[in-house]
Design brief:
The structure is a single chain. Helices cover about 35% and strands about 20% of the residues. It is of the alpha/beta class. The chain has two domains: about 220 residues, 3-Layer(aba) Sandwich (Rossmann fold); about 80 residues, no CATH class. It has a seven-stranded mixed sheet with strand order 6-7-8-3-9-10-11, sandwiched between helices. A four-stranded antiparallel sheet has the order 2-1-4-5, covered by helices on one side. A hairpin with a 5-residue loop joins strand 1 and strand 2. Helix 2 packs across helix 3 and helix 3 crosses helix 4. Bound molecules: adenosine-5'-triphosphate and magnesium ion. The site of adenosine-5'-triphosphate has 11 residues, from helix 1. Adenosine-5'-triphosphate binds next to helix 1.
Length: about 300
């Protein structure tokens, strides 16, 4: 059976500006299950936003396609919510209206009071309550605006939530608070999330699975690393889990070394490029204390 979201033989080429072609990625093939939180990590320019724009229906691939819930993605839809780095709020609307206009569009049968109650609930979930929700975005801090865009995305309960470096512009402290809020909301609803970040610790905290991309051009989604750390997770305790540093080291190694070594290898035409599954679980490798690299073994096998 197909996964909830199925990315099939996705190839993207752009004109390179010198009369030739730039192959961003070729035949990328992977799936995302319903309710899963998947994070994609890779160096700048490898093609993460390009993949996300295709998933959102905002861009068309050169070849291949995306099937979500049995239907081909062919353009933007309320079924897919997107949060960009620059939080794109509508400046002339209040905070509450920025959330409620989408809710009203999604639930035309609801009364104004129902729409407002639903929107207010999601704003409260990200810590925005009281008078502040009557303010315009220009009267909010950057972190508050980011929370509004997260509340807006979750309030619409899209089938797929796409987050492109949503916390990139925030200071570490605010970022931590919003990560906690995102985890809390995600834990309360069945929400499929696909997120881009450059932050390894953020990725481990949030993800069920991390997809690792090699460097571009001709990048590949080379690995799918399962995050074998139980939920609920919290930022201070997660680092004490025995799998934490093993997973972290694996990711650092990949981004520092193997993302280069594995890049630029063209794939055979029509042959799906699927990621290797990596499962790092110290608890299951205790019989063999000498084996400090179970992950690499998994990749090579
Ligand atoms: N519309 C376009 N026309 C031509 N080239 C493009 C276009 N969009 C993206 N590219 C190229 O495709 C490659 C991948 O870009 P993309 O924005 O997907 O990278 P990214 O992984 O999101 O990087 P970052 O981490 O810096 O955001 C880059 O080489 C970029 O120059
Ligand atoms: Mg990008």
């Amino acid at each position: 059976m197909k996964p909830f979201l199925s990315i099939e033989n996705l190839t993207q080429r752009f004109p390179d500006g010198a009369g030739g072609e730039l192959t961003v990625f070729e035949e990328a093939t992977f799936g995302v299950e319903k309710g899963e939180f998947v994070v994609i990590l890779g160096h700048s320019g490898c093609g993460k936003s390009t993949i996300m724009n295709i998933l959102a229906g905002l861009a068309e691939p050169t070849s291949g396609g995306v099937i979500m819930d049995g239907q081909e993605v062919k353009g933007p839809s309320l079924d897919r919510g997107v949060v960009f780095q620059n939080y794109s709020l509508l400046p002339w609307l209040s905070t509450l209206k920025n959330v409620s206009f989408g809710v009203a569009a999604r639930h035309p049968e609801w009364t104004k009071a129902e729409v407002e109650a639903h929107s207010t609930k999601f704003l409260a979930m990200v810590g925005l309550e009281g008078d502040v929700i009557r303010r315009k975005p220009s009267q909010l801090s950057g972190g508050m605006r980011q929370r509004v865009s997260i509340a807006r995305a979750f309030a619409n309960h899209p089938k797929l939530l796409l987050l492109d470096e949503p916390f990139g512009a925030l200071d570490a402290l605010t970022r931590g608070t919003i990560q906690d809020e995102l985890l809390k909301i995600w834990g309360q609803m069945e929400q499929t999330v696909f997120m881009i970040t450059h932050d390894i610790d953020e990725a481990i905290l949030l993800a069920d699975r991390i997809l690792l991309m090699t460097n571009g051009p001709q990048a590949r989604v080379a690995e799918s690393v399962e995050i074998t750390i139980p939920r609920p997770r919290n930022r201070t305790e997660i680092v004490e889990h025995p799998n934490y540093y093993a997973i972290r080291n694996h990711l650092v190694q990949f981004l520092g070394k193997r993302s280069k070594e594995l890049s630029g290898k063209p794939s055979a035409p029509g042959q799906a490029n699927t990621p290797a599954t990596v499962r790092i679980d110290k608890a299951q490798t205790t019989e063999d204390p000498e084996d400090t690299q179970p992950a690499l073994r998994a990749v090579n096998s």
